[in-house]
Backbone:
């Protein structure tokens, strides 16, 4: 059937959607959610498979509505018509049903699913069923390894000549914790190759990419990143800017709304990001605490075992550590405030947060030993010397310049302290409440917003002393943050 395309100026987030009138849909026996193939034969033939929507009004029986991405992809020309026909469901939908029934998937079946994910051949419903199948039925180590390889295969990959390529990852759940920005300059200053692709915040007040963006550009293409590695041995860039592990981003989009995090997918997501930068020596940090993602020793040991097994299948040399996740790392929470903490550590300032400094040194030391760059038990010594000598700060400046330095802003103009209501010793700091306060203040979108912590667990505090200070770029955001902070105390004294 030939129809006239009508552009709908609404973006759908790279989903290809077409709209037919109810009468046209009935003629073709189509329903909302079905697939149709749209072909544009204007010189160079182009075709695209779309998810169908049906409208009772707004569209005539002779037109087809195409959302922004669909219209751009098909390259419609004025007064030209497009041909539509029913499209078949991808073969891999049968494999999704297989997983829902509890069967194990072969490497080829997993590869076919991921190919269709990347080519955007699934509806959101089908994607959700795949995630649900992995959540309810699980993925064993072989399936998880196959999923990791498939994610990397159907995305971009950075390949380096160096025999040793290092990387690190933290499972998350702890505000602050910008150890990557301490470890990378230490390790690259010592000649190791560390192409660090990092994420932006999803539910936290800042991701490493958000914090690094305070200093410099973090959206770089693959060729640019390779050039930076040649000159500085590494970088700290946003993974989403390089299209690495693209399939994982699609699946995260489906998992996020209901916080569905199948263990196999979590493992594959992390390992794919390491595999996609050719890392072969990897450190995984699992923070353990009452309000972190992993809350018990048993859970942590189980995850550690799986990481090591999957790493072995992928040819990676790995080290897994369990760390204290019972309170924030560093003092600043929010992109700029966390960046200022990093600067204090790298510049060896006397007021630098000790916990951030020591954890950064620990991470770098472990990777130095894992790669054979230092003897066992000597890694932290070498890392500390590199940091305290100023070499790491000099190296960080080099990385920042190569990525495109920015002028740093000042903390948000509107601020207010939160004082202690009584004297005593800080017994507990709630990570989730701290994160929520910082986000209400505007972080990470407003990179100057967030909060600064003045007291940590074990510190003595007098009534009226500042526990933290909130920062916001708009007074109404500060008001929301203050109200929440007063109604939900983050500190237990």
Residues:
């Amino acid at each position: 059937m030939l129809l006239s395309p009508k552009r709908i100026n609404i973006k759908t987030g790279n989903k290809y959607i077409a709209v037919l009138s109810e009468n046209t849909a009935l003629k073709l026996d189509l329903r909302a959610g079905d697939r149709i193939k749209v072909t544009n034969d204007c010189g160079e033939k182009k075709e695209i498979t779309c998810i169908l929507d049906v409208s009772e009004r707004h569209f005539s029986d002779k037109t087809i509505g195409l959302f922004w991405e669909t219209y751009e992809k098909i390259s419609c020309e004025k007064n030209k018509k497009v041909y539509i026909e029913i499209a078949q469901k991808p073969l891999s939908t049968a494999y999704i049903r297989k997983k829902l029934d509890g069967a194990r998937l072969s490497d080829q079946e997993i590869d076919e699913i991921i190919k269709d994910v990347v080519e955007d051949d699934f509806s959101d419903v089908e994607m959700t069923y795949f995630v649900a199948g992995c959540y309810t039925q699980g993925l064993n180590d072989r399936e998880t390894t196959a999923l990791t390889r498939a994610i990397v295969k159907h995305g971009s990959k950075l390949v380096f000549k160096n025999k040793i390529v290092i990387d690190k990852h933290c499972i998350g759940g702890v505000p602050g914790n910008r150890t990557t920005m301490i470890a990378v300059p230490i390790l690259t200053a010592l000649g190791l190759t560390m192409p660090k692709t990092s994420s932006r915040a999803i539910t936290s007040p800042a991701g490493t990419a958000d914090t690094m963006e305070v200093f410099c550009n973090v959206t770089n293409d693959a060729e640019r990143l390779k050039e930076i590695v040649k000159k500085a041995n590494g970088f700290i860039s946003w993974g989403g800017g390089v299209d690495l592990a693209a399939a994982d981003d699609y699946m995260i989009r489906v998992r996020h709304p209901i916080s569905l995090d199948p263990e196999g997918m979590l493992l594959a997501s992390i390992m794919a990001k390491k595999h996609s930068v050719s890392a072969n020596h990897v450190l995984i940090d699992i923070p353990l605490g009452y309000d972190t993602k992993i809350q018990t020793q048993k859970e942590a040991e189980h995850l550690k075992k799986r990481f090591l097994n999957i790493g072995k299948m992928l040819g990676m040399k790995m080290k897994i550590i369990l760390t204290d996740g019972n309170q924030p790392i560093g003092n600043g929470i929010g992109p700029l405030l966390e960046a200022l903490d990093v600067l204090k550590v790298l510049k060896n300032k006397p007021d630098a947060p000790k916990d951030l400094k020591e954890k950064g040194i620990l991470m770098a030391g472990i990777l130095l030993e894992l790669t054979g760059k230092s003897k066992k038990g000597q890694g932290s010594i070498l890392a500390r010397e590199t940091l305290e000598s100023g070499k790491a700060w000099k190296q960080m400046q080099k990385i920042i310049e190569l990525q495109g330095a920015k002028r740093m802003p000042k903390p948000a103009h509107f601020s207010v302290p939160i004082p202690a209501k009584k004297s005593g010793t800080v017994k507990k700091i709630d990570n989730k409440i701290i994160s929520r306060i910082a986000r209400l203040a505007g972080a990470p979108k407003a990179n100057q917003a967030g909060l600064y912590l003045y007291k940590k667990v074990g510190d003595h505090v007098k009534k009226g002393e500042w526990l933290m200070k909130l920062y916001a770029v708009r007074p109404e955001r500060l008001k929301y943050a203050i109200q929440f902070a007063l109604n939900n105390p983050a500190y237990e004294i």
